[in-house]
Amino acid sequence: MPSLISCLVAGLAVVDRAAAAKYSLSKTYDSSNFLTEFHFRETGTIPERQDDNWSWVKYQNVNDAQEKGLVSVKDNKVYLGVDFKTTLENNEKGPRRDTLRVQSKWSFKEGLVITRFWHMPKPVCGAWPAYWTLGEDWPNNGEIDMYEGWNLHKVNKPALHVAPEARIGQCLLDRSAQAEIVSENCDNKFEDRVRAWAGQGCQVEEVNDGIWGSPDGGIQALEWTKDTIKLYTWPIGKAPDNIDSKNPDTSAWGTPSVQLSSPRCDTSRAFGNQTILFTLPFCGEPVGNTQFWTQLPADSKSGKTCKEITGADTCVKYVAENPKEFEEFYFGINDPVV
Does the global pTM surpass 0.85? Predict the structure, then answer.
């Protein structure tokens, strides 16, 4: 019987370089406590701003989210979605589209987080789904983006953000992991004007993960020890058998898609306590800016821009006037019985 619910955080029981890490359950989120264990934020981390990235959003508190159908708990499953019914005016100042920024009240440092999804947000021009963790005093305590992308991207693009090298030392991704590296340096201020811009952090493309935008969902696991941070991603039916164990042994999980570890990074210094977030924003920076909307391919690789595909001159215009396009833009989180 699975030992995790919608999200499991397991405390580290044994860790050393010569032996596999073994874990035991220390925290669960399920349909009975999800609505009380998470804050439904109405702003970003900066209270005076609706969103940290200037997204075109109106984040809802838990009561309004329930009343409007943006969040629901039914049949042991959690639904986190957006308003896909209201046609709005094309106005940068709003009113803006109702959506969610959900953040755990509990924080953790080191351990194992396993999350099972029954539905991933559909890729749509103007949309920017993310499942991630965040430390206080960003970026000085780090950020781990486990599921992220925007517009019509075809793959998951995880990223990590850390404080400047002068503060914590250099942090570079391990090249032994599976995913294709887009930018290697995790310093949030690093840029080389070829593969990395300031604010990008270290980023990869999970070209083989098979869960990006999947209507069937998938499974992700974040393993964090004093020496390393690893991210695993599996389509439904492809996760290791022992993932359902009460004491999962990660040594049998194979090569992670993302890895950050000593000596290329002092992860214990770069990452402080993290909270868990699910966010469903629209537009903002960089998703809705002129370059991304009118000049760059919507799928980040080839093909047409979002302006060409949608016929809308701006991201805000498209999001405001086409609510039905976002009906499948939601996270579905499983709740197995413990």
Answer: yes
